[in-house]
Every structure is written in structure tokens, then in C-alpha cells.
Design goal:
Shape: elongated
Low-confidence stretches: none
Number of strands: 9
Order of helices and strands: EHEEHEEHEEHEEH
Largest sheet: 5 strands, antiparallel
Mean pLDDT: 89
Number of helices: 5
Radius of gyration: 19 Å
Oligomer: single chain
Distance between the termini: 44 Å
């Protein structure tokens, strides 16, 4: 079976140690986590883990089953690249002096649909939302102007189909609260 990109989503309780237990599942199977994002979900008190991996579908399915066995996990599922809408956020910190050729930097930022997040006396911060490859394309163009710091967030994603695990979880939670 061929390796491909997957997004794993898990709805969980906010419990100490759960992140560790989930990452151990990947470690035992020697799966590299490309990005891991934890956030509040659309349901009060329920958190959402979004995990990006490149692996075979067979192995990803096994990992998702193991994640679901964790006591504090309500539901987990995996999606192929075309089944989700996804984004990442990149921040680029540059010295204000690097903008001496400001017209060129401004053109590059505009061409990449990025924006100046803040302009301070000592530095500027540029923000780019999009795919990982777009973030690195902007990085490559800004590099000659001197990037002092760069950070790329983990993936955030929502399922394209109408019956996502989030909607199913919401329905279950409503039944429990009745």
C-alpha cells in the first residue's frame, strides 16, 4: 500500500496526560507526526486534536482505532487530503530595516495573499494563511531580505462531507444532555 497524506481528527475530554497517551500510539508504530493541533471544538468542554501524517491507509486506520480506545476520547476519524478543507498559518519576523526596498517586499507579500500583521520600530511581522507549500514559497521569496524568525502552525481542518465526526459528536452530546 502506498503512503499518502491523512488528517486525523479526535474529539476528546481535556485531561492531563491524554496528549502523551495519543503520541505514544504513533511512536510505537514509528509514525512521524507532521503537525499536531489541539483546540476547543464547537462543543462546550470538548476538545479537538487535528493530526497530520503521511502513511499507508491501513496503518492510519489501525492508529485511529487505538486512539478511540483511549478513555478520554469520544470519537476519532481519518480523512484523505481531498476530504478536508485545511489551512496552516505562518508568521515571518523581519527587521524594519529589511524594508528599505519596501516596494519589492510589499509586492511579494501582496502576490502571496499575505499581510503585514504588525509594523513596529524594530521589526515587522508578516502573516500568511494557506497550505504548507505556499508558506515555504513566501519564505523563499522573503529570505533574501532577511527573515529573523519563522513559525508555521499545525494544520487545522474541517471535513468536506456533510456528516463529519464533529456533527455526529454534537448529535450524541445533545442526546446525552436530554
Amino acid at each position: 500500500m502506498e503512503k499518502q497524506e491523512f488528517t486525523i481528527m479526535a474529539y476528546t475530554e481535556d485531561q492531563v496526560g491524554l496528549l502523551h497517551r495519543i503520541t505514544i500510539i504513533f511512536t510505537k508504530r514509528k509514525i512521524n507526526i507532521e503537525s499536531f493541533t489541539a483546540s476547543e471544538s464547537e462543543m462546550e468542554g470538548i476538545y479537538r486534536f487535528t493530526i497530520a501524517v503521511t502513511e499507508t491507509e491501513e496503518l492510519v486506520a489501525k492508529v485511529v482505532k487505538q486512539i478511540e480506545k483511549q478513555v478520554d476520547v469520544h470519537k476519532a476519524a481519518y480523512y484523505k487530503k481531498q476530504q478536508v478543507v485545511q489551512q496552516e498559518l505562518a508568521l515571518y519576523k523581519m527587521t524594519t530595516n529589511s524594508l528599505t526596498n519596501g516596494v519589492e517586499v510589499e509586492r511579494i507579500v501582496r502576490e502571496h495573499s499575505a499581510r503585514f500583521l504588525t509594523i513596529e520600530k524594530e521589526f515587522v511581522v508578516i502573516e500568511k494563511a494557506g497550505y504548507r507549500r505556499e508558506a515555504f514559497a513566501l519564505f523563499d521569496e522573503l529570505k533574501p531580505f532577511g527573515i529573523k524568525e519563522f513559525v508555521l502552525s499545525g494544520r487545522v481542518a474541517v471535513a468536506r462531507n456533510g456528516s463529519s465526526i464533529g456533527q455526529n459528536m454534537h448529535n450524541i452530546m445533545e442526546l446525552i444532555n436530554i
